[in-house]
Amino acid sequence: MAGGALKYRHLSRSSSHRQALLRNLVTSLFTHESIKTTWPKAKEAQRLAEKLITLGKKNTSATRLRAQRIFYVRSLIYPLHNKNPSHHTNPSVKKNSHMVRIPINLTTPFPVKHPLTHLNTLFTTIRARYLNRPGGYTRVLRIEPLNKHHDQAPSAILELVDGPKDMRFHMTAKTLVRERASEGGVRELTARNVQKVTRYRENGMDELEEEVRRMEKIAGDEEAREKAKWKVDERPREGWKMERIGRLRQKT
């Protein structure tokens, strides 16, 4: 109905194109734990990713089938010059075609990551990570436009919470390093953020302290490099001037 409430973002695409885009983004999210895209795409992909994790927490045969339909599975394409006869069983391939499309369950001539690996990751690693968390499995963080020279579309980072690439966890550790070294100490806002990033994380405080020590070491190394870079001559200035005057007299 014209003028009705918008239930989802169309992203200027047809229905099939939009679904393929979101499935591709979610598959990349579970592969890399964090992706960069435009802000509207990140918000729409976040909804689908949250549904997938909810299916993973239920862990039934029905939810496995539903999750398998959502993950994006590419067809494997191989050159026709390979002599393996199992790769020439597709009758739809033309005789003059140099490429052939094969099912994913055949033995491949070189190692390829199986597309259903994401399904195992969802029902093992991801499920164990969010088993006690009631919701909020993903996070969208606004960043500078990725395409600065053209449309400057609003961009964002879509990441899995409590994962190895959790940006808020690393930013909280960096803030702790700075505030512990200051005279005022740790602020109340930082203490609340510490509680948020470690509440549902297994061994959260231990991992946070380890990250703080790692960042303190990095900060110390950077400070030492800066001191070595800008180190000045420790000789007395007057003696250095007299030595320079003596060298000039010798030249004349």
Which properties best describe this structure?
252 residues, mainly alpha, 8 helices
Compose a concise summary of this entry.
α5 packs antiparallel against α6 (188-198).
Question: Can you walk me through this structure?
Answer:
Helix content is 51%, strand content 10%. The chain has helices at 15-32, 39-58, 61-70, 117-129, 167-181, 188-198, 204-229, 237-251, and strands at 34-38, 76-79, 99-102, 138-143, 155-160. The chain has a 3-stranded antiparallel beta sheet with strand order 1-5-4, covered by helices on one side. A two-stranded antiparallel ribbon has the order 2-3. Mean pLDDT is 79; it is low at 75-113.
Mean pLDDT: 79
Helix content: 40-55%
Beta-strand proportion: 5-15%
Number of helical segments with 4 or more residues: 8
The end-to-end distance, rounded to whole angstroms, is 95 Å
Structural class determined from secondary elements: mainly alpha
How are the SSEs placed, and which strands pair?
Elements lengths: L14 H18 L1 E5 H20 L2 H10 L5 E4 L19 E4 L14 H13 L8 E6 L11 E6 L6 H15 L6 H11 L5 H26 L7 H15 L1
Antiparallel strand pairs: 1-5, 2-3, 4-5
Helix pairs in contact: 1-2, 2-3, 2-4, 5-6, 5-7
